[in-house]
Amino acid sequence: xxxxxANTVTCSILASACVGLSGCSxxxxxxxxxxxxxxxxxxxxxxxPGFVKNWDERTQPVLCALMRSEQDWSYWFxxxxxxxxxxxxxxxxxFFDTQQLLLAARVMQAPDSAEREQVFKAEGVTYRNGVLRxxxxxxxxxxxATYQIKDYLLVAIPKERYTTGPVRFVENGxxxxxxxx
Length: 181
What we know:
There is one protein chain. By secondary structure, the protein is of the alpha+beta class. It is 21% helix and 35% strand. It has three helices and ten strands. The chain has helices at 2-28, 70-76, 95-98; strands at 41-43, 50-52, 63-67, 77-79, 99-109, 120-128, 131-138, 148-158, 167-171, 174-179. The radius of gyration is 25 Å and the shape is globular. 15% of the residues are buried. The model has no long low-confidence stretch (mean pLDDT 84).
């Protein structure tokens, strides 16, 4: 009986020590954040009424841009009247104080409503060796529409750390644009 109690106490102490040590490891040995991964958010095309300015898509199939100010926004986008007073025509005041936008646009067959949000998909933004890189997937619409539209991917990233160096746009694993800044 004494041996059973002694074994139970010993096992309880060892179990408590293991739980305590595993709890400590959660607090003291946290995995370091990867500084090459850039946090981003995608802004759906159609969030703001308007369209991307015209460009010659025969010589430049993908239009790529970096927008760091309201003036950049006005240069790349032609705005239309908002449908309601609540709808913004452009990013809100102060947006460009802390954020910047990466734009990839294409002229394409108009997608149907089911495939609209699947045409462009941001996969990641990285910053390595002084190069900011946007990787995204593009799926050509199969709607059967008889007309074309300009559609785009708009990605917001923090402004403060990513201010110099080239910006690469990589579509389906292939570089399609590079901007100097």
